Automatic annotation (TrEMBL):
Oxidoreductase is among the record's keywords: yes
Protein name per the record: Succinate semialdehyde dehydrogenase
Entry keywords, A to Z: Oxidoreductase
Gene3D superfamilies, per the entry: Aldehyde Dehydrogenase, Chain A, domain 1, Aldehyde Dehydrogenase, Chain A, domain 2
Top-level taxon in the UniProt lineage: Bacteria
Record's signal peptide: none
Family label: Belongs to the aldehyde dehydrogenase family.
Molecular function terms, GO-annotated: succinate-semialdehyde dehydrogenase (NAD+) activity
Pfam families assigned to the protein according to its UniProt record, in alphabetical order: Aldedh
Gene Ontology process terms (BP): gamma-aminobutyric acid catabolic process
PANTHER family documented for this protein: SUCCINATE-SEMIALDEHYDE DEHYDROGENASE, MITOCHONDRIAL (PTHR43353:SF5)
Lineage: Bacteria, Pseudomonadati, Pseudomonadota, Alphaproteobacteria, Rhodobacterales
Keyword Ubl conjugation attributed: no
Positions of the catalytic residues: 264
Length: 491
């Protein structure tokens, strides 16, 4: 029973979508000790609301609620779970404008991009509602004649879902939809920077008739919540999207209880432009892959490698587009690049640019930025080299460094010279080169002549230190299913 009073958020059609409480076993609750965390609008610095700063005790309560709900949810017919997900999907579509507004207010991205994320996020709910109907096993004829081996697919169990701030809606649905479809229940810990998008999804799940305790949302600072989620033996699975640093920490914390893991971690995507590329298309692809969400995307191209013969022409074309980019608050019409998420993000970008310039890079193009707020200037840097910090780690901002290479072998070597392996892109008109390079790149996702690779129907995930497992596509639900071999003898 919901007895709390919620202040609205200006501009929302449905004030009830803005919740400043945690969701535990169907109850909207404050932290037991009354502590809260403020959430700010990165475009203005204004506080837009607060959420409970939950402790280990609330997290344990959420896990217990998920465990209780699991006993009923797992036994429902697949079609019943699918129907609940379909209703949740329909409500996300109906409330897309409000969800996008909440997203832009807490995360900063331009409203058009926020609407795109809501559609993308909702698409996973639809997709896995359909996949729920197709969970099946198999029967293996046993060597002994009197028996059959029945291979059953069963839900893993209570799943912890830990998500980042850069896609506060879609990173949740990409995990929660397959979990619920498989029969698992979840405890979500959204980023402390963007909890309101998660809580709005919780409201819609409730309205969709998803039973109490199937989705629990614990908000607040991460260390204590994470410690409970990883140590508690009732949690059988952790699905995490975020940095490699935190992912590997959580992996270690999960080791004593040997939990199943899905990890979607950081990237350092190369974007290779060969001499024989369609340059106009390559510039468009570079803009799409580099500047989406202001460069704060794990699959953003981080290193743009350009063959010597087209280097200057490509740089000039890209520079012209980048210097004309409109930067500002995400709610302002026409804005292409919103604010960065927080002050440390701005500092990291500035550090990378200063290091590159000190090591010989030149600023070829730079867009105007408004005064105040957490804005970073979109930039093109020429003369980038492997020795620079921006070659080694994600800049996570609107900075496009151009590296020069001579041969295909050199391009592949440079592209693979990273401990990360999430996304890579390359542009060529040669089908032989396309096949060779596509095979040689050590990445979980590769785009040929495209800068856009994120879609519900394709497996999403990385190799090396970019993670474990795949999300979306037909394989996405497997992450939440166990395989049981049931040997039936004496038949
Ligand atoms: P982050 O690792 O700082 O945080 C991710 C989540 O982990 C947040 O919810 C945070 O509160 C939580 N967290 C932090 N410390 C924790 C702890 N000790 N215990 C439990 N939880 C903890 O990452 P971020 O800054 O929110 O997101 C940006 C990173 O995410 C980038 O590296 C980006 O590449 C990556 N990312 C990857 C994908 C992908 O699919 N591979 C998608 C989006 C973002």
């Amino acid at each position: 029973m919901d007895t709390m009073i919620y202040p609205s958020l200006p501009g929302l059609k449905d004030a009830g979508l803005f919740r400043q409480a945690a969701l535990i076993g169907g109850q909207w609750l404050p932290a037991a000790n009354g502590k809260t965390v403020a959430v700010t609008n990165p475009a203005t610095g204004a506080v837009i609301g607060t959420v409970p700063d939950a402790s280990g005790a609330e997290t344990a309560a959420a896990i217990a609620a998920a465990d209780t709900a699991f006993q009923g949810w797992r036994k429902l017919p697949h079609a019943t779970r699918a129907a609940a997900l379909e209703r949740w999907f329909a409500l996300m579509e109906e409330n897309a404008e409000d969800l996008a507004l909440i997203l832009t207010l807490e995360q900063g991205k331009p409203l058009a991009e926020a609407k795109g994320e809501i559609a993308y996020g909702a698409s996973f709910v639809k997709w896995f509602a359909e996949e729920a109907r197709r969970i099946d096993g198999s029967v293996i004829p046993a060597p002994a004649g009197d028996r059959q081996i029945v291979v059953l697919k069963e839900p893993v169990g209570v799943s912890a879902i830990v998500t980042p701030w850069n896609f506060p809606n879609a990173m949740i649905t990409r995990k929660v939809a397959p979990a619920l479809a498989a029969g698992c229940t979840v405890v979500i810990k959204p980023s402390e920077f963007t909890p309101f998008s998660a809580l709005a999804l919780g409201v819609l799940a409730e309205r969709a008739g998803i039973p109490a305790g199937v989705i629990n949302i614990v908000t607040g600072m991460p260390a204590e919540i994470g410690a409970e989620l990883t140590a508690n033996p009732v949690v059988r699975k952790l699905s995490f999207t975020g940095s490699t640093r935190v992912g590997s920490l959580l992996m270690a914390q999960c080791a004593p209880t040997v939990k199943r893991l899905s990890l979607e971690l950081g990237g350092n995507a190369p974007f290779i432009v060969f001499d024989d590329a369609d340059l106009e298309a390559a510039v468009e692809g570079a803009i799409a892959s580099k500047f989406r969400n202001g460069g704060q995307t794990c699959v953003c191209s981080n290193r743009i490698l350009v063959q010597a013969g087209v280097y200057d022409a490509f740089a000039a074309k890209l520079g012209a587009k980048v210097s004309a980019m409109k930067v500002g608050p995400g709610l302002e019409p026409g804005v292409e690049i919103g604010p960065m998420i927080n002050a440390p993000a701005i500092d990291k970008i500035a550090r990378h640019v200063a290091d590159a310039v000190a090591k010989g890079a030149k600023v070829l193009a730079r867009a105007e930025v408004p005064e105040g707020g957490q804005f970073a200037a979109p930039m093109v840097l020429t003369g980038a080299t492997e020795a620079m910090e921006l070659a080694q780690e994600e800049t996570f901002g609107p900075v496009a460094p151009l590296f020069r290479f001579e041969t295909e072998e050199e391009a592949v070597r440079l592209a693979n010279a990273t401990p990360f392996g999430l996304a890579a892109y390359f542009y060529t008109e040669s089908h032989r080169r396309a096949w060779r390079v596509g095979q040689a790149l050590e990445f979980g996702m590769v785009g040929l002549n495209t800068g856009s690779i994120s879609t519900t129907v394709s497996p999403f995930g990385g190799v090396k230190q970019s993670g474990l497992g795949r999300e979306g596509a037909r394989v996405g639900i497997e992450e939440y299913l166990e395989t049981k071999a049931f040997h039936m003898a004496g038949l």
